[in-house]
């Protein structure tokens, strides 16, 4: 139909632009870069890739359509003002939802909502008249676009119109507009740009109403709980408004968020009306999207945002998950005794939005943010679902505060592991497996015939991987190429993935302001390496093996070294973030620089913060109660590589098993290489040893055993790994120091490993000898 053809044409135009940019970039770098193997990149090649990405970004900025798409994905057009314009008014449905013996559900239930509002036709009609008085012209234009097939042609105009009127329509429409603003699969880049300018800030409501609601929710007058409370709200949004106060019991400064009255009633009646329209749209041939299904999916999470108790619990859970690995992440402390469904009390924060900060450590905080979101995505599965610049704050002590936990998304283990598996398959260009990964990750429905998709997908990824390994893929370019596939095949962008795009895109956008060479994958790969090397789940262990073996039987030493180096980078960064000295330096630096004439004092914002910061734990002592457990990531003055200490630690047990297998294969291959060489030196290469065993297929075996190309490759790979591990932390090895560092565990490991190596070597040699004698080739 016309709509799909228009969308497809837009995607093809974007794809063509990226193709031209890519071709120009590769030609500028020369054939040397273009023909690199898809394995570990040398430092010179990495520099070349950085230049390529810098050139690509510049050319993207010079193209209006591509530039708009990138700004949209990074959320750079979001209106994050703290206050609404004076002429903004929001109309709500002022009705007591609990009269006449029934009530609205507190958890989204479309059937119960429909039953409730079907009994109140007057209230529904009143709301419909409100909506029509505000947006009648807009809805009429949409109907005309549907009839004439101009949905795609007029999407930017309609997005601009809805942005101008949606604030007056109420919370449901504001939140729906914001949700659509991060969906490149539904809206064009220009339409996304318009909706991202939608402001959630509205005028505050009457303080007396807010204080009465607070008394009803907490069971006390506010003066009994807070010793002081600001006379006016410091911020007001569509769902509620925030006051600054101080707890009477402890004297701590707090932020008190009070929900706007009639929000539940207004949201539920709007959803009731939207669903009725959605059912009607199913009869329109031009509408192929399941509007009702998308609406129900979004509304379920929206109802969760209306429950402030749930928001407080989300923040507490999130803080617990980040505390150990990321002490530089700040999460609001919730005072549960002063929190209810419509009132949230959290600690207060003084700080500045990360996107507006000029501090020297913004780049470091962006890197921490990337790791934080990767941890949510690939580890905890508890994902912050409202990532935008206004929710990322730099605190005066140089930490990253993440705010607003009303919307959270749970990522299943299948999705978490599926993403890591997909990266492994991408590195090996295993496109058949990648297509199946798209099913696992919910991009393609179950039961779809995947055979037509495979060759198209292979072509796209081959182009993306043309200039280097998977670590160096330009994912923005790849996303544009994939956009066309989504129009030709039954692809969809899962809701969780749209949030990932926004979260990572926002962080990248902030980083690029101060560092044009910022490469997201450089920050993400160390964390991925850490997960692969230390996670004991069967699926990730299988993914690790696939990463270094692919579908073959010989591991790729370069790729394995790449993983180990990335793990070392992550370990160094993790230890640095826990350093007491670094923390004190940051606090002192911020205290000094805040009064500098070159940098204005940090402005206060009404955001929550945790209580006084406990000093981060110092670097762990090298020797502890468990020698093995204390080896990895401990002594900054150590000579041995972090990777070597990891292998000898308790976390490295699985990797040690893998390494023992390869060492056994290496010893076996070396022994046969040596035997073959000796036989040639002595002129015995044509001599045979008779086999006198009964049933033997072969009557004689050569003195010099056969050596295959695989044997030579195994020896080469094992040599590379051992040379890497023995090279020392700085590329220079002090043998005495390394032995001293590893001495606490060497006796135990020798007792454990030497018999195992000997046993496996004997078994391997015996099995090969029996095969040579008794099996026909």
If you had to describe this structure to a student in words, what would you say it looks like?
By secondary structure, the protein is α+β, with helices and mostly antiparallel strands. It has 29 helices and 14 strands. Strands 1, 2, 3, 4, 6 and 12 form a six-stranded antiparallel sheet that branches. Strands 5-10-9-7 form a four-stranded mixed sheet, with helices on one face. A two-stranded antiparallel sheet has the order 8-11. β3 (240-247) and β4 form a beta hairpin. The longest helix has 29 residues, at 653-681. It is elongated and about 105 Å long. The two termini are 61 Å apart. The model is unreliable at 1-50 and 580-636 (pLDDT under 50).
Task: Summarize the model shown.
This protein has 777 residues and is α+β, with helices and mostly antiparallel strands. The protein contains 29 helices and 14 strands.
Q: How many strand segments?
A: 14
The share of residues in extended strands comes to 5-15%
Strand count, sense and closure of the main sheet? 6 strands, antiparallel
Given the helix and strand composition, which structural class is it?
A: alpha+beta
Helix share, percent: 55-70%
Total helical segments: 29
The radius of gyration is 31 Å
What characteristic shape results from the CA principal axes? elongated
Oligomer designation: single chain
N/C terminus separation: 61 Å
Q: What is the average of the pLDDT values? A: 74
Regions with pLDDT < 50 over 5+ consecutive residues? 1-50, 580-636
């Amino acid at each position: 139909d016309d709509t799909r053809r228009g969308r497809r044409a837009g995607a093809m135009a974007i794809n063509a632009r990226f193709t031209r940019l890519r071709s120009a970039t590769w030609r500028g770098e020369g054939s040397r870069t273009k023909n690199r193997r898809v394995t570990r990149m040398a430092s010179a090649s990495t520099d070349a890739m950085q230049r390529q990405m810098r050139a690509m970004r510049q050319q993207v900025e010079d193209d209006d359509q591509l530039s708009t798409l990138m700004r949209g994905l990074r959320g750079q057009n979001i209106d994050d003002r703290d206050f609404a314009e004076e002429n903004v008014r929001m109309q709500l449905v002022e009705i007591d939802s609990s009269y006449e013996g029934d009530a609205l559900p507190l958890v989204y239930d479309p059937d119960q909502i429909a039953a409730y509002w079907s009994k109140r036709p007057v209230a529904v009609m009143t709301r419909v008249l409100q909506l029509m008085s505000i947006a009648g012209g807009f809805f009429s234009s949409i109907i005309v676009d549907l009839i004439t097939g101009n949905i795609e042609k007029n999407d930017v105009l309609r997005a601009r119109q809805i942005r101008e009127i949606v604030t007056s329509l109420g919370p449901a429409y504001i939140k729906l507009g914001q949700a659509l603003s991060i969906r490149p699969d539904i809206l064009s880049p220009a339409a996304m740009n318009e909706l991202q300018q939608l402001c959630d800030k509205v005028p505050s409501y009457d303080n007396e109403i807010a204080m009465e609601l607070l008394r009803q929710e907490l069971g006390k007058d506010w003066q009994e709980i807070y010793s002081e409370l600001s006379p006016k709200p410091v911020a007001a949004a569509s769902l509620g408004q925030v006051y600054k106060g101080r707890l009477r019991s402890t004297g701590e400064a707090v932020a008190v968020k009070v929900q706007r009255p009639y929000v539940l009633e207004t949201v539920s009646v709007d959803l009731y009306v939207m669903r009725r329209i959605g059912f009607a749209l199913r009869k329109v041939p031009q509408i192929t999207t399941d509007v009702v299904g998308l609406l129900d999916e979004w509304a379920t999470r929206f109802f969760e945002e209306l429950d402030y108790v749930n928001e407080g619990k989300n923040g507490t859970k999130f803080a617990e998950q980040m505390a150990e690995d990321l002490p530089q992440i700040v999460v609001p402390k919730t005072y549960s005794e002063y929190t209810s469904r419509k009132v949230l009390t959290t600690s207060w924060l003084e700080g500045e939005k990360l996107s507006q900060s000029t501090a020297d450590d913004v780049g470091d905080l962006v890197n921490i943010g990337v790791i934080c979101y990767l941890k949510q995505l690939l580890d905890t599965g508890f994902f912050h679902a409202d990532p935008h610049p206004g929710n990322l704050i730099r605190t005066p002590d140089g930490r990253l505060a993440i705010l607003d936990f009303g919307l959270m998304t749970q990522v299943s283990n299948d999705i978490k592991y599926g993403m890591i598996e997909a990266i492994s398959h991408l590195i090996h260009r295993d496109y058949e497996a990648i297509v199946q990964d798209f099913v696992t990750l919910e991009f393609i429905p179950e039961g779809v015939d995947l055979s037509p998709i495979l060759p198209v997908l292979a072509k796209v990824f081959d182009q993306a991987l043309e200039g280097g390994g998977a670590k160096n893929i330009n994912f923005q370019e790849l996303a544009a190429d994939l956009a066309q596939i989504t129009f030709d095949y039954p692809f969809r962008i899962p809701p969780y993935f749209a949030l990932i795009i926004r979260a990572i895109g926002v962080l990248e956008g902030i980083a690029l302001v101060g560092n044009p060479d910022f490469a997201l994958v450089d920050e993400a790969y160390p964390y991925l390496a850490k997960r692969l090397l230390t996670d004991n789940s069967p699926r990730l262990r299988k993914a690790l093996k696939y990463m270094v073996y692919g579908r073959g039987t010989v591991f790729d030493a370069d790729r394995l070294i790449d993983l180990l180096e990335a793990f070392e980078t992550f370990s160094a960064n993790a230890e640095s973030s826990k350093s007491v000295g670094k923390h004190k330096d940051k606090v002192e630096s911020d205290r000094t620089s805040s009064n500098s004439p070159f940098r204005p004092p940090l402005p206060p914002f009404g955001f929550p913060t945790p209580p006084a910061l406990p000093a981060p734990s110092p670097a762990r002592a090298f020797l502890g109660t468990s020698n093995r457990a204390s080896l990895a990531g401990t002594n900054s003055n150590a000579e041995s590589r972090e990777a070597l200490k990891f292998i000898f630690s308790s976390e490295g047990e699985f990797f040690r098993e893998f390494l023992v297998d390869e060492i056994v294969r290496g010893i076996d291959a070396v022994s046969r290489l040596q035997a073959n060489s000796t036989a040639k030196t002595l002129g015995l290469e044509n001599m045979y040893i008779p086999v006198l065993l009964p049933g033997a297929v072969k009557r004689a075996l050569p003195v010099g055993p056969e050596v295959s190309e695989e044997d030579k490759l195994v020896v080469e790979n094992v040599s590379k790994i051992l040379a890497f591990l023995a090279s020392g932390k700085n590329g220079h090895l002090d043998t005495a120091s390394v032995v001293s560092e590893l001495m606490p565990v060497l006796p135990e490991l020798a007792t454990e490993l030497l018999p195992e190596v000997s046993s496996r070597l004997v078994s391997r040699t015996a099995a090969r000898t029996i095969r040579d004698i008794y099996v026909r080739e």
